[in-house]
Amino acid sequence: MIATTTAPARPQRVLRGLAVRQVRRGALVVTAVCAGMSALVAVGYHSEALDPAALAALARNPAIRTLFGEPVALDQAGGFTVWRTGTVLAVLLGVWAMLSATRITRGEEDAGRWGLLLSGRITLAEAVRQHLGVLAVVPILVGVATAVAMIAAGVGETGSLLHGSALAAVGLFFVAVGGVTAQLFVSRSAANGVAATVLVVGLLMRMVGDGVPALAWLRWLSPFGLLALTRPFDTNRGLPVSVLAFAASRPARTALLGSVVAFAVRRTMRPLAAWSAGIGAYFLLLGLIARSMTEFLTGNPEFATMAAQAGFPALGTVEGYAATLYALLAVPVGVFVAVRLAATAADENARRLTLLLAAPVTRARLLAAEAAVAGCAALALITVAGIAMWAGTATVHAGLAPGDALAGAWNVVPVVLLCLGAAVLALGWAPRTVAAIGALPAAGGFLWQVLADSVDAPSWIRALSPFAHLAAVPATAPAWPPALVMAGISAAGVVAGAIGYRRRDLSA
Amino acid sequence: MSVSALRTENLSKRYGRLLALDGLSLDVAAGEVFGFLGPNGAGKSTTIRLLLGLARPTSGRAWIFDTDAADVAAAHRRLAYVPADVALWPRMTGAEVLDLLARIGPGTDTAYRDELIQRFALDVSKPAGTYSTGNRQKVALIAAFATRAPLLVLDEPTSGLDPLMELQFRQAVGVARDNGQTVFLSSHQLAEVEAVCDRVGILRAGELVEVASVAQLRQLHHTEVTATFTGTPPNLAGIPGVDDVHEDAATSVRFTLSGSPAAALRALADADVATIVVREQSLEEIFLAYYGQNAR
């Protein structure tokens, strides 16, 4: 008789293999997006002779700096690319790195899959170390790919390499934040919440530090501020990167159980409060700088034209400014809706819904409750943003009427509805993809529009993004026909998703 | 005519190429405690998922008290369920989960629930994230028994319980039976099934191979008889129902008996029988016989 035994592999290698399998797909997407966007924007940059006085005025304006970061070296393709994409890509990479870090460590542990793993020769510390070690390679890859893509697009080498390194360092920072919170807090969701707070606070510190000269030192405390301080293509400073690379983070009942709807509300309250705080603070800040921004653009019409070309038209009036920035609101709120329905899918997959569905509760009722509560929470979030921006503008007497503020915020409802429709559709037919598909109309649509604008794509390509169909409310009247079409598509998604959800077998 | 608490007709479920359940027709009368047995992967959990409307049958139908099982809003008003693997929201305490299940469930006897919490010695003030498997199972068991729903569907409900809690479980099933509730118990614990069930169904590879009362099952199988004699043992060959005769010693005989024992007893009485030990096979032995037929 021949006995076959598996040769004992080195456990570290097995662990690394397991970690690679869990992050490779996301890593590829993030790398492609970061490198691709940087290269596309650099290639699409049209050098225009900018008058140095105008540039200086732009750099002096606190509102511009708050919103887009300090504009430096805009006369070069590289400088423009970094200014245009740096923060967006850093946030994207940071969010992915942080969520992946908690998912592959705490998430796997909470799901009980590490029980088997740790019963072998592997210790918990070893497992965490190997997983985070593999994840930490990804930001480096992203940085290298971005630098290579920019150099290939014909941008200067030193600046590209510096920008790539800074991007990689931000990613590493958030791998560390996610890794630490995953071990400090009792659950994956708590760890994610704290890590996301670190990210939002970091972003706000960058914005405030850029906007208020007296508080400029705040930027040295924020990964995003440090990213901006590297000033690629300008002074090409290396010190902030080294600060980034060594900054290890040291971050810190029976109501509503009466019905399926009430229970859905209960589970939504905590995330809604956290998202409201983040989005509210962001839009309050946008409101506070509204006056400074609009006055600057009125005084420097050439920048108004430039901003229009970059996809931010009509920033010269407070209504136009509000309309432009409220459109951005669709992205976080759309992602919020997708994440809430993904939580329903996760509850199903973890068998937590089984006991609910064994009660006299139909799937249709459960789905209706979850979708309606997610939708209403999104409306609350939109309203919070509307009021926050109005409060900011009212503080600086920018002259935005409260009705206009709310109308501008509510203008993004059709895009959020699209996200809801897409998420319900995914829940009905492909429950593992709810978050990705649900966030696609908002996050994907926004990236699509930015890309299309950056490369001067034909109008039909631009029209594929829902953002192309949003009217600039409150500067102009709402565009009802596209809004109704989007609502119709969303309703179709909800109906198709509900049919799938009622028919399919529930997982586990 | 007695009412069926649970009935299936040619119920089949196919997952891709795997036929998980093949034409199951089952009828569980109201008020009985029914044991549902079978090896791993035989289709027990699939059957329960179909009965609860969590999965959709490929063909066939199921009824809960003459309500189509697919109509969960009506059917689930008359049943309570304990899953094999209980998952709870980790931040909610046991009391909160019980409150939630009571308020959306088919109606709960809160006094009995409090008594069950005492009996199962569950600390309901702790968040579910800190519970062991057994404690999570207790939450689901307390919620189910406290409903007084006419049908209790229990899927391996005691796999995480210690022997003391297992005893509490058997008592709770007894209380349910006395209240006229029907219990559908899927289990691997044959001693437990033997102790609480009136009838059992045996599932193998997606097919129902036997449905009988525990007593009938034993009759279908052999009774083992050992007799000692003061004189020479009788010749038992050729007596109806007697098989496997072994003469262990000069004065002792061991044989198996099936069917009526009358002829064998007469033969024993004619000889000078000193002692007689009649032992029925345990459910476990009967099951090992069933599983064994399929074993490699």
Protein traits:
heterodimer; A: 2 domains; B: about 300 residues; Rossmann fold; Alpha-Beta Plaits; 6-stranded mixed beta sheet; 10 helices
Concise summary:
Chain A is mainly alpha-helical and 508 residues long. Chain A is built from 21 helices and no strands.
The CATH architecture name of the largest domain in chain B reads: 3-Layer(aba) Sandwich
* Helix amount of chain A: over 70%
From the N-terminal CA to the C-terminal CA of chain A, the straight-line distance is 40 Å
The total tally of domains of chain B equals 2
Q: Would you state the CATH class of the largest domain in chain B? A: Alpha Beta
Of all chain pairs, the largest interface belongs to:
A-B, 30 and 37 residues
Oligomerization status of the protein chains: heterodimer
CA-based gyration radius of chain B: 23 Å
Kindly estimate the percentage of residues of chain B that lie in beta strands according to DSSP. Answer: 25-35%
End-to-end span of chain B in angstroms?
43 Å
What's the CATH H-level homologous superfamily of the largest domain in chain B?
P-loop containing nucleotide triphosphate hydrolases
- From the 3D structure, determine the CATH topology of the largest domain in chain B: Rossmann fold
- Taken from the alpha-carbon principal axes, the silhouette of chain A is globular
Individual helix count of chain A: 21
Give the strand content of chain A: under 5%
Low-confidence stretches of chain A: 244-252
